[in-house]
Amino acid sequence: MDLQSPPRLDRLEDLRALKVDPGRLYSATHEEILGGWTTDIYFLKTRDVLRAAGRLDVPVTAEIFARLEGVFAGLGEALSLLDRKGTDLAVEALPEGESFASKEVLVRIRGTYEAFGLYETVLLGMLASSTGWATAARRCVEAAEGLPVICFGSRHVHPAVAPVMERAAVVGGCVDASCILGAKLLGKDPKGTIPHAAILLAGDTVELARVYDGLLPEGEPRTVLVDTFKDEAEEALRVAEALGDRLSAVRLDTPGERGGVTPDLVREVRYRLNLAGYGHVAVLVSGGLSPDRIRLLAEAGAAGFGVGSYITHATPRDMTMDLKEVDGKPVAKRGRLPGPLPNERLKRVR
Known about the structure:
Blueprint: H1 30-34, H2 41-53, E1 59-66, E2 70-71, H3 75-83, E3 90-93, E4 99-100, E5 105-112, H4 113-116, H5 120-144, E6 149-151, H6 162-171, E7 176-177, H7 180-185, H8 196-202, H9 205-215, E8 222-225, H10 232-243, E9 247-252, H11 263-275, E10 282-286, H12 291-300, E11 304-307, H13 309-312, E12 319-326, E13 329-330, E14 347-348
Parallel strand pairs: 6-7, 6-11, 8-9, 9-10, 10-11
Antiparallel strand pairs: 1-5, 1-12, 2-4, 3-5, 3-14, 12-13
Helix pairs in contact: 3-5, 5-6, 5-12, 8-9, 9-10, 10-11, 11-12
């Protein structure tokens, strides 16, 4: 089998063609996802059963909901999948970035079961993960109360889904993303400074800051880490003196082994910069931030936040798809209400 163009699964017997190179990367390619290789096996079996029963092409209405409340995300990717699967599908959905209640209908799909049934696993996974990340991002953004939050989470997830995660974080309210592909998918330029590794290799924060300043294009903010070698307040003043008005911000990322970034540290750095005449230099913070810590650090004078693990470690919002109409007749499994459930917030998206 050509792994670059895997065949689309249609019948259970198609599994015989699947040969996997044990030396490959474990993540699925886009072609494999679109071909149905990442769905649960029972949806492939369902195609054979319904085809034999003459019911595979029956028109249906399906609805997707989550048991927990959250911030909806992942619709764009889900629609990209559905756009490839059938021209007869009609889709209504809650707009991305909207908060929703438990069990509120988030997506409604109308069309033949053949056109999308195989992809239930994929659709639910796309929405569940992105919605979990967007929900966590929104909590951080709300805690920041208008101060910018940037997603720094790519290092905490598998690289195959890092762009998906960072896109969802921006849907949730983060102003920017550091992952190159994640930002580009949003039509943005990725945002970030320089790592501690660069400063360690240069041997001095100020020396590295001068080189960094000389290389950045005009108009791009100059933000420099100030926790690598010396006391953070001392290093902040050294960098401010070297770059002057060209310095936009200093970033505190003090590790937990040194107590992390505390409100008192933020207050001291802010105070000493002001005292020395560098009130224009913002104090940004990162490193193990949560909504509670963001609130405390904002009160202490932090002007922006880089958040990683809190967003990436978010619990996915489990999604469920139910058939609610078959051949125009209301249906439901036991415990669920038959027929489409009303939600005036849904918009026609396909």
